[in-house]
């Protein structure tokens, strides 16, 4: 354990929302999991969805499970920071109220989103900081996607085409972190968030 200060957030008056985005297979979920392990005091947003819970999923922990009607109501009244339809079926999004509540309490807030979601949050909360997680190279991104083995050739090509568009949006972001090493990249994201304590 490395301890720089008793309070991991020395200036709680300036708690800030940090949005992490980047192309498919770059490791956004891996960085988020490492942050959850090493910096448990950072508040990591839980998405809302209209899909039904799967076995073992807990409302408010894995997702906020909402009816389609409730989701529509929240979206239409501005209580979603961002949302999208995924795979043409269910909707996913970020509730505004929990994010604002945690920021008001002085906790750094972390969102892991795709490019579309990050753009919506920039419209809703322009004072947030936006971090682009980049691969070390295009070849490495292709290797990671291929080695996952979770997509067939057609789906893999579709995701790579999307990744090219996402990489072209890098200039929209405030910071770029290269995910060549998970621990180092997580250190960099935590430093950008002003977190001065992490558990190894």
Automatic annotation (TrEMBL):
Gene3D superfamilies: Guanylate Kinase phosphate binding domain, P-loop containing nucleotide triphosphate hydrolases. It holds the Pfam family Guanylate_kin. It comes from the Bacteria. GO terms for molecular function: GMP kinase activity. It catalyses: GMP + ATP = GDP + ADP. Residues 15-194 form the Guanylate kinase-like domain. It is found in: Cytoplasm. ATP binds at residues 22-29. Its EC number is 2.7.4.8. Keywords: ATP-binding, Cytoplasm, Kinase, Nucleotide-binding, Transferase. CDD domains: GMPK. Belongs to the guanylate kinase family. Essential for recycling GMP and indirectly, cGMP. This is Guanylate kinase. It comes from Georgenia deserti. The lineage of its organism: Bacteria, Bacillati, Actinomycetota, Actinomycetes, Micrococcales.
